[in-house]
Amino acid sequence: MKSLKGIHHVCIKAPSLEKMEQAVEFYTRVFGMPVIRRWGQGEKSACMVDTGAGILEIMADGSGEAPGPIPHVALAVTGVDEWVELVRQEGCPITMEPQDKLLPSQPPFPVRIAFFQGRAGELVELMEEKE
Questions:
Q1: How confident is the model at residue 43 (pLDDT cuts 50, 70, 90)?
Q2: Which of 19, 33, 16 is nearest to 76 (CA)?
């Protein structure tokens, strides 16, 4: 019997091997995401890190056309403001300061969110669900 388990991973493409390695180092050191596998060589290298609730795949794209077609990666967090200060200290540009939003879904979805640009050029959303 088949079933849907959820998202397996989200992929981000870095424009170079150097940017990919910077991204891997950032997610492992700042967020504590362990590397679970690596493959490829040079400008076709890739790595997967475990977010605790899914996988973030980070790939080097030697064509220089990164970031890829994913508009952003959303990380479920608590303490959005504290995370923003941490990534700001790491030199990541904050593209949207923390804000409380009420997403107009049914039922309405209250969240606190912020966005920053990661090491591979990816846009990252920090999302905290509110009661």
A1: confident
A2: 33
Query: Beta-carbon neighbour count of residue 39 at 10 Å?
Result: 10
Q: What is the reported pTM?
A: 0.77
Q: What are phi and psi of 90, to 5 degrees?
A: -80, -5
* pLDDT value at 102 more than 80: yes
Indicate the burial class of 43 (C-beta count within 10 angstroms; 0-12, 13-18, 19 or more).
middle
Asked whether the beta carbons of 77 and 87 are under 8 A apart, the reply is no
Full 3-state SS string of the chain: CCCCCCCCEEEEEECCHHHHHHHHHHHHHHCCCCEEEEECCHHHCEEEEECCCCEEEEEECCCCCCCCCCCCEEEECCCHHHHHHHHHHCCCCEEEEEEEEEECCCCCEEEEEEEEECCCCCEEEEEEECC
* The pairing of beta strand 73-76 with beta strand 55-60: unpaired
